[in-house]
Design a protein that fits this description.
Elements lengths: L3 H6 L1 H10 L6 H39 L3 H37 L19 E6 L11 H8 L2 E2 H7 L6 E2 L2 H19 L3 E3 L4 E2 L1 H6 L12 E2 L4 E3 L4 H5 L6 E3 L5 E10 L18 E11 L4 H18 L4 E5 L11 E9 L4 E10 L3 H6 L2 E3 L5 E3 L1 E9 H11 L7 E2 L13 E2 L1
Parallel strand pairs: 4-9, 8-14
Antiparallel strand pairs: 1-11, 2-3, 5-7, 6-7, 9-10, 10-16, 11-12, 12-13, 13-16, 14-15, 17-18
Helix pairs in contact: 3-4, 5-12
Length: 424
């Protein structure tokens, strides 16, 4: 969430940011400011009344010590009445505090000044393109190739679970595992520490990274136990340091984590969901950073480069998009999407989002650091996919497809596949 001082000092900036992100109810800002004032007034009144009560309690002790019981008894009666007033004020303060917090959770992050203002994906800016776009007409879409070989079984996945839960078999399973290991190994070589995280999180963790209140409809839940199946490793890894304070010398802290991920993908339909394009359960390797505020935008570019390096090493053609305000998301201050070229579908497929959240998530999670002067300050968090597996797999199956129907193995994956030149 945003720093309340920013909302109080620059309410029009916050309202403009909300409108640019497609959040039309800017009255939230005014309601928050009024609630914040009422809460602060209640805190001030409560502190004053508690102080007065404490003063009288000390005076009662002094009067009793002097034998002035009548005067002490009168004060005891007064303090008894004050206790009731204090209890009422405590209830009021708690109610206002919870209302204030709830309102703050509903106000989106402010986009960085370098982010283009726009409403839809059509307003995103293509900032970079790498590689040639393969357009051979004989290249089959990945779902046809894998069906011929029996490598990915969508039908049995439907039988066992439902649509969007495929089985990977034989060479496809080995390729999937090779990609995961390659992504993790490359990240650790580039300075990330590997984590293995829980696949379920509690409500505090989902709130900490901004999944709630915002993306509740996209998550699978375990109501009996109050858990959420993770939509990305960003959630458990970012919350790994919730309610902790970093020492300045330890920053930046960088983690890489593989997990399966679950997303309901409500409203998805059409060609976008064919084959591996959009699944309800999928594998992803996530990169997460905790950094000093003054370095966070340099760290974003470094994070992006780490993700792009994987695509370059895999020999895949891709483009980098700078996301506009309306297509960026509730929590991000700046976001890049990386889209890989799919030769069999002749279209772009998103495989990574790299985002800077500034202090937005850190305030929710109370993740802070101690600066040079010893002051406790909010740090910045970043994360990016390094990479999401399904569409990378789809692109490899189509880009490395041979006329014989076999699959040529990308050079960097050969060590993970026993040196095999081809699959099939």
């Amino acid at each position: 969430m945003l720093d309340i001082s920013v909302i109080k000092e620059q309410p029009e900036l916050v309202k403009t940011a909300m409108l640019n992100k497609g959040e039309t109810d800017t009255s939230l800002v005014d309601t928050l400011l009024e609630t914040d004032k009422n809460w602060r007034d209640a805190v001030k009144e409560l502190d004053s009344l508690r102080g007065e009560s404490n003063t009288k309690a000390k005076l009662i002790g002094q009067l009793m010590g002097k034998g002035q019981k009548a005067e002490a008894q009168a004060l005891i009666q007064e303090t008894g009445e004050m206790k009731g007033a204090i209890k009422g004020l405590e209830d009021k303060e708690k109610m206002l505090r919870e209302q204030r917090f709830g309102l703050m959770l509903r106000i989106p992050n402010i986009p960085h000044e370098s982010v283009p203002v726009g409403k839809t994906e059509n307003d995103n800016v293509e900032a970079f393109r790498h590689g040639e776009l393969r357009t051979d007409e004989w290249v089959k879409p990945h779902w046809e190739l894998t069906a011929e070989h029996g490598w990915i079984d969508f039908e049995r996945g439907v039988k066992v679970t439902g649509a969007g839960f495929p089985f990977y078999k034989g060479p496809a399973a080995r390729l999937q595992r090779a990609l995961i290991n390659y992504f993790i190994d490359t990240a650790t070589e580039r300075g990330y520490t590997e984590l293995m995280a829980p696949f379920m999180v509690n409500e505090d963790s989902a709130r900490g990274t901004g999944q709630i209140p915002d993306k509740e409809d996209m998550m699978y839940t375990v109501p009996r136990d109050g858990f959420f199946m993770i939509p990305t490793a960003e959630v458990p890894v970012s919350n790994f340091h919730r309610d902790e304070i970093f020492e300045l010398k330890s920053l930046p802290v960088k983690y890489v984590c593989y997990t399966p991920c679950w997303r309901r993908e409500a409203g998805s339909y059409g060609k976008d969901v064919r084959g591996l394009n959009r699944l309800h359960q999928f594998d992803k390797v996530e990169l997460v950073k905790f950094v000093k505020p003054e370095t966070s935008y340099d760290e974003l570019e470094s994070l992006r480069e780490d993700a792009e390096f994987l695509l370059q090493q895999l020999g895949l053609s891709y483009r980098r998009l700078l996301m506009c305000t309306g297509d960026m998301g509730f929590t991000q201050s700046k976001k890049y999407d990386l889209e890989v070229w799919s030769p069999g579908q002749q279209r772009w497929l998103e495989v990574s989002s790299c985002s800077n959240f500034e202090g937005f998530q850190a305030r929710r999670m109370m993740v802070r650091y101690r600066d040079e002067k010893g002051s406790i300050e909010t740090l910045h968090t970043l994360n990016g996919s390094g990479l999401a597996l399904p569409r990378v797999m789809a692109a490899i199956l189509e880009e490395y497809q041979l006329p014989s129907g076999k699959l040529r193995v990308p050079e960097v994956l050969k060590p993970y596949l026993g040196g095999a030149e081809e699959l099939g």
